[in-house]
Amino acid sequence: MKSLKGVFFALISSGTFGLIPLFSIPLMTDSNMGLPSILFYRFLFSTILMGAICLFKKENFQISKKDIFTLSWLGLLYAATAMCLIYSYKYIPSGLATTIHFLYPIAVSFLMVVFFKERKSIVLFLAAILSLIGVALLCWNGGGSIKLIGVAIASLTVITYSVYIVGINQSSVSKMNAEILTFYILLSGAILFLIFAGVSPSGIESIPDFTAFGRLALLAFLATVVSDLTLILAIKYVGSTITSILGSMEPLVAVLIGVLYFSEYFNMNSAFGIFLILVSVSLVIIFGKQRKEILSGDKH
């Protein structure tokens, strides 16, 4: 039952995370809001929403001094991921940016091999090669020039998000209540973006109209609170690697939104590139599942 819950939470998390372009790009283009302010309001609203959920459930907000440090750097990693992903939309299509971001499961596996002594495998190497070919095909799609700076910024999210996921699973906060953990990570991000927006040239902008407010609220609720909370629940139920692989909904949702809503270019190269990335990530998860079954069998 826990495994089924974990799969469900992981799919919800990745699907709602893929909605980020749907709300954030119109805020940049239609509402003409600066990225620092968008990020600040996103995290502010999501912190308030998550705090309200914790109060409703009568959760204990008390944490140790050690946990404050851990939650701060986890919040920094998540904030960096959010910032790099939304900044990459300025240079490359949102579907491409999110698909590049989806390489994080492979990075998670490499981190587990290097730092936590998981067994090395040729499958992991093959998955990395396939994923790089997939990204190359996405960049070389014939739909206009792809700015390498956008690819580089989106690629940074692979590092920050993979360390974030492994950090949640391997740190002292892994046993913390999911709602409280999510609240403090979002609070850390809100504080960081308050400082970031405050020192930016435009400062903290006011929300221009009700439409912008609605988009910010949906960005905060669906693409932040729901996605973050279900991500943490998924990690608790099925672990980092399985959660990462089930993130396949994320690029698919983002690409569909990009093509259907923002008229982003899509051709056979794009389709084959996404296919290779999904195959590479699937190889990682299948290998991970088989490895766990073998190790489990050795113990009995």
Automatic annotation (TrEMBL):
Keyword Transmembrane helix: yes
Pfam families xrefs: EamA (PF00892)
GO cellular component: membrane
Domain EamA: 5-138, 149-285
Coiled coil: none
Alphabetical list of Gene3D superfamilies matching this protein: 1.10.3730.20
InterPro entries reported in the protein's UniProt record: EamA_dom, EmrE-like
UniProt entry keywords in alphabetical sequence: Membrane, Transmembrane, Transmembrane helix
Transmembrane segments: 7-27, 39-56, 68-89, 95-116, 123-143, 149-168, 180-200, 212-235, 242-262, 268-287
Protein's recorded name: EamA domain-containing membrane protein RarD
